[in-house]
Amino acid sequence: MNAFYSELQWLPRAPEELPQRLKALGNSTGPLGRELQALASYSHDLNQLTKLAKAIGRARADGKSLDPLVPFRLAVLSNSTIDMIVPALVATAARHGVALEVIQPSYDQVAQEALTPDSKVNSSKPDAVLLALDYRALPLKLTLGEREASLATVQGVLGYLQALRNGIKANSNAVCIFQNFAPPVEPLFGSLDRALPGTLRNLIGGINRELAEFVLGSGDVLLDVAGLAETVGLADWHNTQLWNMAKFSFSDELIPLYADHVGRTIAAIRGKSKKVLILDLDNTVWGGVIGDDGLEGIQIAQGDARGEAHLAVQRLALDLRQRGIVLAVSSKNTDEVAREPFLKHPEMLLKLEHIAVFQANWNDKATNIQAIAEELSLGLDAMVLLDDNPVERGLVRKLLPQVAVPELPEEPAWYARTLAAAGYFEAIAFASEDLKRADFYQDNAKRVSLQKQVGGVDAYLASLDMTITFQPFDATGRARIVQLINKSNQYNLTTRRYTDPEVTEAENDLEVFTLQVRLADIFGDNGMISVVICRPGEAGVWNIDTWLMSCRVLGRKVEHMVLREILKHAQAKGIRKLAGTYRPTDRNKLVIDHYARLGFTKVREDDSGLTRWELNVEGADPESAPMKVVSQGFAEAKEKSIA
Amino acid sequence: MDEPQIYTRLVEVFHDVFDDDSIEVTPQLTAKDVDGWDSLAHIRLILTVEKAFKIKFSTSEIGKLENVGELVKLIKARA
Question: Predicted ipTM?
């Protein structure tokens, strides 16, 4: 069983305390429907979906409103046992913004229910009827090698399905959702089954083709169960033992996936499919970080394994755009730097004219996505964010729960497939107007100014359980220290480049204060993310020779915690003043006010833009951030013994 | 796996399937002792047990189970 599909791995893992959260439903301030949608938006197995469906049922029985979930009544006709599927449908529909009510007639009463005017299904006036038949329900006869008879069999089946449809249309006017048919796993001859008229495989292939054509013209809806079964594998789709025991059409392990496909279809009928794809840039649309690696360093080349994975994301985005999905960008980068690859990199498939709104700045993504939604006049529930960074994904999920944020695996080769498999953009019809929809937003890569900040960012950061670790330079960290010193361009105050021997020299010089900083959080270890070197200047003064940081941890007040650590050691060594320099380059405009934000006073500014800053150690009290501090390996003890 | 280990994991399975933390899983426990243990819930229970212990039962084995004690015997033989 392919776990990616059976466990819906584009959805985040369910929290352990689901039962408690279900019991606490309705106690929070927001609307109940919103809470239910959030709870449904994890990857749940059948038992959890059943619990969630029960909770929804209880809320309904108590007369509670399920707003803002959109109500939908679905009748399900099947020749198989659907009792275990129904709760999964109800719980999963909430994920797609729908409050689903399922009308379930007695077992195997398909024709009776469709054709009798006052049947349970027809009297309930459903919004749609799902014809969840499998191949065993069809009047199929093996007519091996007989072309005419086989065509007649196929037509006979279509006629049967159309009769069901006509009965439903006449009596309740519901939309008909036709399932097509997953053929049985094993053929009779082998390869010949496909070509020879009248084999089961051949007949079912013909039926599926005719049914698809019929639905395209009739205004009904197709649920491509044959495609789904093919995707997960026919052998995993079918479970003969379960059919024998309890008349299950397909494997119980695929019920959550099947329910998600039904959910997407209903959401599409109600117009609730997503309409906008918001793309992160670094390590999503190209390999690497544009601010640090530059145009030459990012990976998007054909023939480069990593590059091809990211090109696939671009290609999928372009294909989606062609069918009417709007593209936007939300990236933590300087605007000009982020636009460079779109303008200048020869391998970029995406161009600025494909992007409706282009938000590249250092503000949080929730605020930016809010601005994108307002600019496009679309709801947050129309948005999808594709981002490789789990911290960003967590932030947007927490602060803007209506935005769909797929989980991405570590390996970029699977990014495009994950986005496609999640099915956010399900459509039940396609018109030529759709081709032009993206243009309607007058793609001009508009940059929208941010008005209101989305609240809750600080609380989210506090929930990340961060640990910051400070150590002086040592042999173990040296290689990475040298790498960071030579590679960092954006968050780099002086851009001084040192060789390995020079770093070793600083490491061994008792007068030089060095720091290697690591940050870990709930998502894992970010490794070394900052390097500082302070050299003695005039008496009692430390000159901050080097201060650099990885942009990945911007916005978390890491620089404030680093300053606190520097001050701690400065104080212990009797240093009265810290002196910092900002040396401008064409890459580090980002840190022009780094020292200002940390409370330093500017003492000089040159024509070149170089600035010098000072901070008195006595009385300095920079902001603290909610993280655990580990400080180890410092030679204070050594110092004392020398004196 | 020994019986105490099996019962520990089985208790979790029962609580999960029936959404009821108060169920006490004893060898004599049968379907009529538990609210909601109908034929469908029975199938869900068996499927969950199969996944929890990474084993597969045959159709005839499932059909012959009278109580939890027999289920545990089956699990012990397979897990």
Answer: 0.91
Same domain, yes or no: A235 and A212: yes
What is the nearest CA distance from A223 to chain B, expressed in angstroms?
26
Task: Identify all chain A residues contacting B21, using CB atoms and an 8 Å cutoff.
Answer: 19
Owning domain of residue A315: 276-460
Looking at domain B3-78, which CATH architecture does it have?
Answer: Orthogonal Bundle (1.10)
Domain count, chain A: 3
Assess whether A329 and A358 both reside in one domain. yes
In a domain, residue A511? The reply is: yes
The CA-to-CA distance between both ends of chain A, in Å, stands at 68
Q: Residues A194-252: pLDDT tens digits? A: 999 999 999 999 999 999 999 988 889 999 999 999 999 999 999 999 999 999 999 99
Is B59's CB within 8 Å of A51's CB? no
pLDDT < 70: residue spans in chain A: 442-444, 636-643
Domain CATH for A357: 3.40.50.1000
Is A31 within the bounds of a domain? no
Q: In chain B, what is the greatest distance between 2 CA atoms, to the nearest angstrom?
A: 30
Taking only the tens place, the pLDDT of each residue in A157-184 is: 999 999 999 999 999 999 999 999 999 9
Question: Are A481 and A350 within one domain?
Answer: no
pLDDT at residue A27, as a whole number? 74
Among the three residues A233, A254, A269, which one is the final residue of a domain in this structure?
Answer: A269
Where does a domain end: A269, A286, A318?
A269
A/B interface, count of CB pairs below 8 Å: 28
Residue A575: name the closest of A512, A485, A625 by CA. A512
**Rounded CA separation A197/A23 (Å):** 56
Tell me which residue has tokens 């601010």.
Answer: A291
CB contact under 8 A, B40 and A19: no
- Per CB-CB distance under 8 Å, the chain A contacts of B16 are 47
Q: What is the pLDDT of residue A430?
A: 83
Q: Residue A477 is part of a domain; what is its CATH number?
A: 3.40.630.30
* Structure letter (DSSP) for residue A68: T
Preferred mutation among A47, A80, A107 to probe B, highest tally of B CBs within 10 A? A47
Cβ distance of A83 and B40 shorter than 8 Å: yes
Residue ranges of E strands in A463-619: 466-471, 513-521, 524-536, 541-549, 577-582, 601-605, 611-616
The pLDDT tens digits of the residues spanning B36-65 come to 898 889 999 999 999 999 999 998 888 888
pLDDT, residue A641, reads 41
Q: For B61, which residue in chain A has the nearest alpha carbon?
A: A245
pLDDT score at A293: 87
Residue B32 CB partners (closer than 8 Å, separation 6+): none
Question: Chain A within 8 Å of B17 (Cβ-Cβ)?
Answer: yes
Closest C-alpha among A130, A247, A142, A248 to residue A204: A142
